[in-house]
Amino acid sequence: MDRKIQIQGKWQRLFDSDLGAREFFTIITEHYSIALSGGSVSVSDITTKHKLSTKKGFKYLYTGDVSPDEKVLVALENGKHFYLFSLETLSLLKRVTLPRGYDSTDAYPSFSPDGSELIVPVSRYKDETLGYLFFLCRYDTQNYNLISMTEVSFNDFPAWPV
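Below the sequence we write its predicted structure tokens.
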């Protein structure tokens, strides 16, 4: 039996902690079911269950979110990038590189409730004493430019459930 844990947000977001799972992260909105499997992103119609699109050839895409208006999907790489997809045309809009020296591992992004910002968690290894430092990057959703970075504690870092 798959063990699924709901992650908070506007849409139902599920993480499957079964290491043998084919779909590690699923987002369910009013109109779509979106599955991220590491190497691919699949979008299906929530009502008909018909697969609308599958994009392959990625590495480590395990989490994401959908804008409140259901127009944009963000897929966060376990690494140094996030990808933006149009849910209207089912096409790749943009690949954004995280700030230099930071990466996102075992974390998930979130759109603000009004859709004006995208919050992307990143971390950076400091040293043996401090270990990892955790930050929330805020991007505008017009051009996906970095607005700010705020250091947070691990408890405030939106990480995968354990």
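The two ends are 17 Å apart (CA to CA).
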